[in-house]
Amino acid sequence: MELVCPAGTPAALRAAVEAGAHSVYCGFADETNARNFPGLNFSPKELAEGVAFAHKHGAHVLVAINTFPRAGDESLWHRNIAAAEAAGADAVILADMGLLAYAAKNHPNLRRHLSVQAAAANPDIINFYGREFGVKRVVLPRVLTVAEIAAINRETPEVETEVFVFGGLCVMAEGRCSLSSYATGKSPNMNGVCSPATEVQYVEEGDELAARLGDFTIHRVGKDQPAPYPTLCKGCFTSGDQVGHIFEDAVSLNAQDILPQLAKAGVTALKIEGRQRSRSYVAQVVRSFRAAVDALAAGQPMPQGALAALSEGQATTTGAYAKTWR
Amino acid sequence: MTSLPTLAPPLSRLVGLLPKPPASVALTLLARRIAARHSEIVGRLGTHVNASFALDPTDLPVVMILTLPAGQPRIRLQKDASGADCRIAGKLSALLALVHGAVDGDALFFSRDLVIAGDTAAALALRNAIDNAELDLLEEIQHVAPPLARALAPIAAALERQTGVALRRASGVI
């Protein structure tokens, strides 16, 4: 199976390739990609250099242009599709149907993947994207069980599927979550940022660390407790007489142990989340998953990784793949 | 918290005795050389180039205040983080590991080994810009003061072996 790895910077791209990534995904330094964070991402020149480096080492580069264009300002998204093709990218990852139509018409030779942001989660819609826009691969939302993924693959023979196997989780129908917009006016869908750093404040209150997003305090953790990301979906709230993580626990996905089941379900590519993370994270996670993919190909048992320390909440879950959420 | 080593108190006290103005000048020279050799750092800061950053090794009695007037780094040593727009704090070993790409900043944050306060966006921009620069501080010192770098190299290698603190660019990362 193909290992698709994150790169928020040119250094992370090189780290991913050298650690064994088959493909690297990245984005431009603007609101056209869903990791539009301070200090991250690529200029067109950096992308061209990154593509050349990856190709020299036998790896592919996929460019995420996966936010939804603003009415009247679509030209930025259009320019970036052209820039990705000019840089020699192997595919673009798109979410918006209009943008898919634009790319299919104006850049027919540029391979198109469907972003997780499109939340395509059944065979009918996946086949529709394949038929109408020539989409070759769909990144499945992180809400499906392995059995559901297998059912999709049985009915979508013309479209490959890619699934997340490690990193941050969204429980919402992806591309449709408005929690960040509610708190800050900015969302991953339109601005490329969930819980933008400009709206985040960490405040030490005695022995506790409070995280605020906009006007909301979204969690407090004690002195020795792991600190989670400042996203509303991972917040600790009071609801009725319950206090807890109402939407989602502060844990990360790790599906390394179920790679054999995902392979059996017909998955083509395995995606690691984390373009906002460092080159150290990228190198460690990619190396661990490349060893697992190679072991799988050789019919050997899955190696035991030690990636919990890199995970939010310092804990991991197999997420929806096994549907064991409370 | 992870098991990152803490600087020995006598060494920490020794650093506290250093006269701050000349040490600030030396650190400014080093920072300017780094910025000149890695111009992408300032570029990646974007609008956050106007922020002031308190780099706070919590096991040292000094804080480095980094500003970049006209894109030129300036470091001022002071006793606390007052006046800075954001504070990035952790043991010296954690900060060195971050600079050298040996650890992940988010992982240090999750484990509470790294504290971010104030302007979170500016702190993130600096962290990402530094991570992309693939720095090796000894290499940078080599460009400012070659004899000093030559003298430090074997000491750094021995210290790295004994303590596990990343004093050079992490191997196996790039």
From TrEMBL, chain A:
<comment type="subunit">
    <text>Forms a heterodimer with UbiV.</text>
</comment>
<dbReference type="InterPro" id="IPR001539">
    <property type="entry name" value="Peptidase_U32"/>
</dbReference>
<dbReference type="GO" id="GO:0008233">
    <property type="term" value="F:peptidase activity"/>
</dbReference>
<keyword id="KW-0831">Ubiquinone biosynthesis</keyword>
<feature type="binding site">
    <location>
        <position position="194"/>
    </location>
    <ligand>
        <name>[4Fe-4S] cluster</name>
    </ligand>
</feature>
<dbReference type="GO" id="GO:0006508">
    <property type="term" value="P:proteolysis"/>
</dbReference>
<protein>
    <recommendedName>
        <fullName>Ubiquinone biosynthesis protein UbiU</fullName>
    </recommendedName>
</protein>
<keyword id="KW-0479">Metal-binding</keyword>
<comment type="function">
    <text>Required for O(2)-independent ubiquinone (coenzyme Q) biosynthesis. Together with UbiV, is essential for the C6-hydroxylation reaction in the oxygen-independent ubiquinone biosynthesis pathway.</text>
</comment>
<dbReference type="InterPro" id="IPR051454">
    <property type="entry name" value="RNA/ubiquinone_mod_enzymes"/>
</dbReference>
<feature type="binding site">
    <location>
        <position position="177"/>
    </location>
    <ligand>
        <name>[4Fe-4S] cluster</name>
    </ligand>
</feature>
<feature type="binding site">
    <location>
        <position position="233"/>
    </location>
    <ligand>
        <name>[4Fe-4S] cluster</name>
    </ligand>
</feature>
<keyword id="KW-0408">Iron</keyword>
<comment type="pathway">
    <text>Cofactor biosynthesis; ubiquinone biosynthesis.</text>
</comment>
<dbReference type="InterPro" id="IPR043692">
    <property type="entry name" value="UbiU"/>
</dbReference>
<comment type="similarity">
    <text>Belongs to the peptidase U32 family. UbiU subfamily.</text>
</comment>
<keyword id="KW-0411">Iron-sulfur</keyword>
<keyword id="KW-0004">4Fe-4S</keyword>
<keyword id="KW-0378">Hydrolase</keyword>
<dbReference type="Pfam" id="PF01136">
    <property type="entry name" value="Peptidase_U32"/>
</dbReference>
<keyword id="KW-0645">Protease</keyword>
<feature type="binding site">
    <location>
        <position position="170"/>
    </location>
    <ligand>
        <name>[4Fe-4S] cluster</name>
    </ligand>
</feature>
UniProtKB/TrEMBL annotation, chain B:
<feature type="domain" description="SCP2">
    <location>
        <begin position="51"/>
        <end position="130"/>
    </location>
</feature>
<protein>
    <submittedName>
        <fullName>Lipid carrier protein YhbT</fullName>
    </submittedName>
</protein>
<dbReference type="Pfam" id="PF02036">
    <property type="entry name" value="SCP2"/>
</dbReference>
<dbReference type="InterPro" id="IPR003033">
    <property type="entry name" value="SCP2_sterol-bd_dom"/>
</dbReference>
<dbReference type="InterPro" id="IPR036527">
    <property type="entry name" value="SCP2_sterol-bd_dom_sf"/>
</dbReference>
